[in-house]
């Protein structure tokens, strides 16, 4: 999964041109993610992500069948190109979403069935002489690349499962457009929109049969984790206001909004 605000120059790995390539992994300085204000998270991560990040949904175009699709993201900033989880190159949260944790590697889709492992060639750790090799002298994958491939395959499987969860939410029409409004210490208003949340009123209107089905499939638990995660918006607002004034935001409210144009959050 390639994110344009993170993977600036993704190139598919090839044992011939990249035979001698070395990478200074693991990443120590996360300044590379300074423009990352949101990132895809898989359903399997919700339990960890919800403790530190707000989890919301964004429209993700159409799937291969031409149906509308959505994707869950962890919110990292309240303005375009803002990452509040960075502090001097260090990550401020204990948990890091899988897509970011695998950096500088990412998945490049070849077709519906195949994908390629790519490396962001813009990362300063690429080509460092003290780095780890990806291929041996015979062109075979090293243990490092084999491990990355296994993690990528696992992540891709979780991506597919997450898509099914999101499709079920759409089928049941459980989502609504939302906007966060905050009053900053200097009296200015700050709004964040362009995302979707699960509507509690719509959930309450579901039949017992559907609720049971959502419980058995695990979707109901994911919805509750999503709701719990929204409390983390207060932390982001406080971090955001630290750059404006020493005091935290004085007000936080949620309100229905008209369907927005793709805005603050990037998936």
Give your account of this protein's structure.
This protein has 267 residues and is an alpha+beta fold. The protein is built from 7 helices and 13 strands. Strand 8 (105-109) and strand 9 form a beta hairpin. 32% of the residues are buried.
Name the structural class: alpha+beta
Mean pLDDT over the residues: 88
Give a short account of the largest sheet. Answer: 3 strands, antiparallel
Q: What is the first-to-last residue Cα distance?
A: 10 Å
H/E topology pattern:
EEEHEEEEHEEEHEEHHHHE
Structure keywords:
three-stranded antiparallel β-sheet, alpha+beta, 267 residues
Short note summarizing the structure:
27% of the residues lie in helices and 25% in strands.
Topology of this structure?
Elements: E1 10-12, E2 22-23, E3 38-40, H1 46-49, E4 55-62, E5 68-75, E6 86-87, E7 90-91, H2 98-101, E8 105-109, E9 115-120, E10 132-133, H3 143-171, E11 175-183, E12 189-198, H4 200-204, H5 208-217, H6 219-229, H7 233-242, E13 251-256
Antiparallel strand pairs: 1-9, 2-10, 3-5, 4-5, 6-7, 8-9, 11-12, 11-13
